[in-house]
Amino acid sequence: MRVDFHTHIISEDFLNLAEKYGDDRWPVLEKTCSCGANIMIKGNKFREITNHAWDTNERLKDMDKEGIDIQVLSPIPVTFTYWSEAEQGLEMAKFQNDFIASAVNEQPDRFIGLGTVPLQDVDLAIKEMERAITELGLKGLEIGSNVNGKNLDDELLDRFFQAAHEWEVPLFVHPWATLGRERFPRHNFMYMVGMPSETALAAGSIIMSGMLDKYPNLKICFAHGGGSLPYLLPRMDQGWNVWPDIRKTEKPPSHYVRSLYYDSLVYDENNLQFMIDRFGADRIIAGSDYPFLLREVPSGKVVDTLTTLSAEEKENIHGLNALDFLNVDKAQYE
């Protein structure tokens, strides 16, 4: 069984909150043809997408062609909109959660859904998390790597993580509003440098905060192989050792990375092997970033090239680790 854990989807009839609220910061979908559209922000093209981002029939064709049994659907990160007023952010989250749930309901054997919540208001976020999981049947949440510049270990977010821990809701952390983004206008560095750096900061914040001691059953997966985290880990350990005054954890950072999950999207077998050595093969989940240009085709392509992995380890990375992370019984797909 092959599961592509990291894929994004958006409704073809995406709501226009820019028009509704007179605020051009909201992402808007402008169709360019039946096969494509631009995501617009402040009247400028933020991202060009194809109909594979909304047309599930095209998506299923690609899955069949690439040997993918199941895709895990999640929102496009620019739609997190944590900067908005809380009730408006909730409106955006509900729309996306309802849409993803409907896509899953149409093809329950091929799709699993992740929802989203307005993290700018923890009370509303917890309420929508409960609705997404218990009423809509989504299997987890995708959240951003920061909330309006606050790292994920900010005390204002603690009750959200406590609820996710108590309700056993898996969380997929995806970079957005990247660190130093004002320095990334050229070369598409936001995607190539900013996102990996941002992911490492998010992961480091959680690891160093003591959250994983406090909430040991918390399930968190980081996009893009954890970004630059695998390579920064020895430096984090050294900082933990030489600055005892900053310690909030019982053990050094390298202990906690093996209680987290990471997608396999690093494109290179040497990098993937390094991740496996650092984190363990049981913590790696195949994911492609479908349907965007930077995606791996097919999902888990590099996993297949590694000669150091057993057939069982490859099977786990390709699918079973994802189902385990999402608390899904694999028997229902057999």
From TrEMBL:
An example Gene Ontology biological process: secondary metabolic process
Entry EC number(s): 4.1.1.45
A cellular component annotation (GO) from this entry: cytosol
InterPro entries: ACMSD, Amidohydro-rel, Metal_Hydrolase
Recorded GO MF terms: aminocarboxymuconate-semialdehyde decarboxylase activity; hydrolase activity; metal ion binding
Stretches assigned to the Amidohydrolase-related domain: 3-327
Pathway assigned in UniProt: Secondary metabolite metabolism; quinolate metabolism
SUPFAM superfamilies: Metallo-dependent hydrolases
Pfam families (alphabetical): Amidohydro_2 (PF04909)
Signal peptide start and end residues: none
Keywords: Decarboxylase, Hydrolase, Lyase, Metal-binding, Zinc
PANTHER family: 2-AMINO-3-CARBOXYLMUCONATE-6-SEMIALDEHYDE DECARBOXYLASE (PTHR21240), 2-AMINO-3-CARBOXYMUCONATE-6-SEMIALDEHYDE DECARBOXYLASE (PTHR21240:SF27)
Subunit structure, as described in the record: Monomer.
Family in the record: Belongs to the metallo-dependent hydrolases superfamily. ACMSD family.
Protein name per UniProt: 2-amino-3-carboxymuconate-6-semialdehyde decarboxylase
Protein species of origin: Salicibibacter halophilus
